Amino acid sequence: MKKKIFFLINSLEIGGSERVILELYNRLSNKYDVKLITLKNVTNYDSKIKTISLSKVTKTSRMLVHISSYVKKLKKIITEEKPDVLVSFLELSNLVNIFACKNTKTKCVISVRSTLSEVYDRGIYGKTFTYLIKKFYPKADIIITNSKYSKIDLVKSFNIPEKKISTVYNPLNIENVQKSSIEKIERKYASIFDGKSKILITVGRLIDAKAHPNLLRVFYNLKKEVKNVKLVIVGDGPWMQKLKDIIKELELESDVFLLGSQKNPYKYVKKSDIFVYSSVYEGFPNALIEGMACGVPVISTDCRSGPREILAPETNVLTQAKKLEFVKYGLLSPVFKKELNTDIHASLSKEEEIFMSGIKTLLNSKKLSKSYAIKGELRIKDFNSENMAKNFLKTIKVN
Length: 399
Description:
The chain is α/β, with parallel strands linked by helices. The protein is built from 16 helices and 14 strands. The chain folds into 2 domains: 4-171 and 384-396, Rossmann fold; 174-382, Glycogen Phosphorylase B (Rossmann fold, 3-Layer(aba) Sandwich), CATH 3.40.50.2000.
């Protein structure tokens, strides 16, 4: 009889955690009985994926008030299905998992996908989750982080026993990314990638953590020195209108392109010259390794956590760039201040200046750019899905 591995996540909206779960699902479903449980209702999704929704709730903002209902329904599923392991992603699902697995034989595995001290560092919401994490996360059987620094953060900031925590990097379906990257670009976007301009591109949710306003400030000043350059931002989120307003205020409508969420962002990345990553905090940035898989040189802020572990794996994860670092697989730049500058026309901060200098360096040196592009494609082989799936199974102790 196949062992049962169930996954639990808030929803299947587009995001890094969701893509990781789906990749693991596809890798494990041949050998194991795998099911995917979501807190929110799932609609219009691949019918080949066995999904169970615990609620008809569709708005994320209402999910926390339904936690007791989720626990009750999940406990019923555990009692009936008797999964060997229940693996959850993201904080709300992690708490539901811990509560539902209590007094059952199902192994409770929770997964931390961000540097939590950065995520929950302010406000009532942050204080509430900080308390819940400290009190209940130690009750899980196994805790998986997707970066080494996130593990350190859990121990230092939340007093989680180190022996319970293991790090497994996110899996990357390299073949799928590279195959998708050679697809033809739609006619409506073809003029952007016509080869007449240098293209900077970034991919990610339009949220405060990604620091897109800082990136726009950097680009606005870069345009004063480099005329034939464009910026493409792929992604959707609550900051869409704010970014549109900034682009209009800076009169960059002809130079910055918001493509929204795209099923295949890789074909745009492949046609770009530099992948730029401006986050102020992360867990493990999938978009960064996907950019490298497309054969594009990368520059990233040295935010907590992930970029340093990806681009400079031989260095100490506790260090952070104070100047531009030309590391083994790309460029690392000091992280931007978390408090985003409200005056979009103000002089660039030191960190923004350094980030801009890194972009200029890559634009001005074909040799350096090509070298990093080649090295990046070699580096991402370390994250291939097959190896990561094996590490995952070893960590959750399932044969």
